[in-house]
């Protein structure tokens, strides 16, 4: 009995040991399976979480990665929702799923939702769940399959589809998609092009229904699968029939694509009916214009640089060519006279700069093919032809016209010369009438005085009773002799000036002193006529080169005129201004003035403001012309400013030149004698009163 119990105990121990060995073996296998299972889960591309209650107890590598960390312990043992929470949009749905999982052991299928990470970024994922009881507590396994990249790609594709759909809809051309020669899609322009109101009217329709019979065979050939080449763009023209039966001309661009083993046609159609109409009108217009240009009586050409591209019939005729084609391609310069080639090159180079401006015209000479030279008048204008600058030239033969113009110019010149001759004859007639008057008046006075003196001598009363009368008549004789001498001197001097034999003696003089002395020497006579004389100068002395005698003659002549035309009570001003490089002399009076229309002739020879029969003062019309010549011989200028009733001002401007010699003693002595007095008596001979 005891032995039996011992054997049973030993057997029991062996079985217990076997059970323990089997248990250890099972535990080892279970551990290995657990490790394998964990490895598989860690390598899963999906995030796997395991929670017990509201506490995270496991997270695989992908879950750790999504949580923006590297260590699983950063999220394990933390509260559910640490680092990642459900998007508010999905909170209600997720809450129901969680309640179901915690209530009983169950499975919930994948649900697409958005999740918000702790950095605020949003991820997309599909989430599934599994719950089971262990040790009396509910465990939940959550699997997150992240679909952010796919979702973003889908959204991008959606946006692209929307963009290209809008783009196709907004295209100005009609777009059709076809499959098996049926319309599967069209844009708004396609609806309008074919005269439909809605896309549904066109979808599913046979393409051939809209192709004009003339072009159907061509369409069938181009869409034949046997000759179909993928991605080959085809261009063509054609006619389509709208729903209302109207025909329209179109340009077609098509391409065939393979999509899901199906031949898809993409056809872009543009309505060119108006374009065709305009092209037809343009062709007709071009034909009309060509005929019109050929009928023009002037030559017309188009050339690129100097290369002729087109000429009309008249241009060929002007160039001496038998046919327009014989000239095309040749250089314009081949037909230009050698003397005008350089000028023509310059015109061709510069005409391009006148784009948009009025075309210039110019004369040229053409050397025809038969050797004949003709004159032409040319207009040229530029234009762009396919972005290349070209020139249109029109020209006409003006050989005969130029001859007529030359004859016309000669005729006008002859008429002008005839008018000048008439004017000169008139001036000559007036001058000789004036001269005869000027000569006759003092001669009559001289003759009358001589007759009276003869009577006095005959009666032997010369030295006694008639002494005063004799003296008076002798003065009259001398004054009128001076008048004749002044007239003759002026005539001789003006003749010398014309022939170039008149000389001036340029020496260094104090011109202020010269002008002042000659002015003051006549002051007594001027004041005796109840005229006030004012002399003023900016400088007291100014040495310069001049002919003192001629300066005195100029001043006396101007003063004589001022006295002659200034009424008693008037004023004569003589002013001298030093302007550094020139001396300005002004002689101004308060006389009767000069009409504005006569100012331009007062310095002309033999011209006077009043004619012979209306003037109230003596004069030959030579004085001011002589003054102007003398001033100009000094290198100066003279001008006049006048107003009728207000007076006149003569202004002399003389250049200051100091490079000349001093006058000789004999010359100075001669000027100190009675010559100055005699010069005054001669210059004032026609205004002195006895």
From TrEMBL:
It comes from the Bacteria. Residues 2-36, 401-430 form a coiled coil. Residues 109-159 form the PAC domain. Transmembrane segments: none annotated. GO terms for molecular function: ATP binding; phosphorelay sensor kinase activity. GO terms for biological process: regulation of DNA-templated transcription. Keywords: ATP-binding, Coiled coil, Kinase, Nucleotide-binding, Phosphoprotein, Transferase, Two-component regulatory system. Its EC number is 2.7.13.3. SMART domains: HATPase_c, HisKA, PAC, PAS. Residues 434-658 form the Histidine kinase domain. Residues 160-218 form the PAS domain. It catalyses: ATP + protein L-histidine = ADP + protein N-phospho-L-histidine. NCBIfam families: sensory_box. This is histidine kinase.
């Amino acid at each position: 009995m005891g032995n039996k119990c011992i054997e049973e105990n030993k057997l029991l121990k062996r079985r217990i040991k076997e059970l323990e060995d089997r248990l250890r073996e099972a535990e080892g296998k279970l551990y290995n399976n657990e490790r394998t299972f964990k490895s598989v889960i860690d390598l899963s591309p999906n995030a796997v979480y395991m929670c017990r209650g509201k506490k995270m107890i496991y997270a695989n590598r992908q879950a750790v990665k999504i949580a923006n960390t590297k260590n699983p312990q950063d999220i394990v043992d933390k509260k559910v929702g640490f680092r990642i929470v459900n998007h508010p949009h999905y909170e209600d749905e997720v809450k129901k799923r969680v309640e179901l999982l915690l209530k009983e052991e169950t499975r919930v299928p994948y649900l697409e939702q958005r999740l918000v990470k702790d950095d605020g970024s949003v991820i997309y994922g599909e989430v599934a769940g599994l719950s089971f009881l262990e040790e009396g507590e509910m465990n939940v396994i959550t699997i997150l399959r992240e679909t952010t990249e796919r979702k973003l790609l889908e959204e991008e594709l959606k946006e692209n589809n929307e963009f290209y759909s809008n783009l196709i809809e907004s295209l100005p051309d009609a777009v059709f998609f076809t499959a098996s020669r049926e319309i599967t899609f069209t844009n708004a322009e396609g609806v309008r092009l074919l005269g439909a109101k809605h896309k549904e009217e066109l979808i599913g329709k046979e393409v051939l229904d809209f192709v004009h019979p003339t072009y159907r065979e061509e369409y069938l050939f181009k869409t034949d699968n046997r000759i179909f080449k993928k991605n080959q763009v085809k261009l063509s023209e054609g006619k389509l029939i709208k729903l209302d039966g109207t025909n329209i001309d179109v340009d077609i661009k098509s391409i065939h694509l393979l999509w899901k083993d199906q031949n898809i046609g993409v056809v872009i159609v543009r309505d060119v009916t108006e374009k065709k109409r305009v092209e037809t009108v343009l062709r007709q217009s071009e034909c009309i214009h060509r005929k019109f240009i050929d009928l023009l009586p002037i030559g017309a050409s188009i050339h690129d640089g100097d290369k002729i591209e087109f000429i009309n019939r008249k241009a060929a005729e002007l160039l001496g060519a038998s046919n327009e084609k014989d000239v095309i391609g040749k250089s314009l310069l081949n037909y230009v006279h050698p003397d005008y080639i350089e000028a023509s090159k310059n015109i061709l180079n510069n005409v391009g700069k006148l784009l948009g401006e009025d075309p210039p015209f110019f004369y040229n000479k053409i050397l025809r093919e038969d050797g004949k030279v003709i004159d032409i008048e040319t207009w040229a204008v530029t234009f762009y032809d396919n972005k290349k600058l070209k020139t249109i030239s029109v020209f006409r033969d003006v050989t005969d016209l130029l001859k007529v113009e030359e004859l016309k110019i000669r005729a006008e010149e002859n008429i002008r010369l005839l008018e000048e001759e008439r004017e000169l004859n008139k001036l000559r007639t007036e001058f000789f009438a004036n001269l005869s008057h000027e000569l006759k008046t003092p001669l009559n006075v001289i003759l009358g005085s001589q007759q009276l003196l003869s009577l006095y001598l005959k009666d032997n009363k010369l030295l006694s009773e008639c002494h005063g009368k004799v003296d008076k008549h002798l003065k009259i004789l001398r004054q009128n002799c001076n008048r004749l001498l002044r007239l003759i001197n002026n005539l001789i001097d003006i003749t010398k000036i014309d022939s170039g034999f008149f000389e001036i003696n340029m020496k260094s003089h104090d011109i202020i002193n010269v002008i002042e002395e000659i002015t003051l020497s006549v002051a007594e006579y001027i004041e005796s006529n109840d005229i006030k004389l004012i002399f003023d100068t900016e400088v007291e002395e100014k040495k310069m080169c001049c002919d003192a005698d001629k300066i005195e003659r100029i001043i006396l002549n101007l003063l004589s005129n001022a006295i002659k035309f200034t009424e008693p009570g008037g004023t004569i001003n003589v002013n001298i201004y030093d302007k550094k490089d020139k001396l300005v002399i002004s002689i101004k009076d308060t006389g009767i003035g000069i009409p504005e229309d006569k100012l331009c002739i007062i310095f002309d020879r033999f011209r006077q403001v009043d004619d012979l029969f209306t003037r109230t003062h003596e004069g030959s019309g030579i004085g001011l012309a002589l003054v102007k010549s003398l001033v100009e011989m000094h290198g100066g200028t003279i001008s006049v400013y006048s107003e009728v009733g207000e007076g006149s001002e003569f202004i002399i401007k003389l250049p200051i030149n100091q490079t000349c010699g001093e006058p000789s003693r004999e010359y100075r002595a001669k000027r100190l004698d009675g010559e100055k007095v005699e010069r005054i008596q001669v210059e004032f001979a026609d205004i002195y009163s006895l």
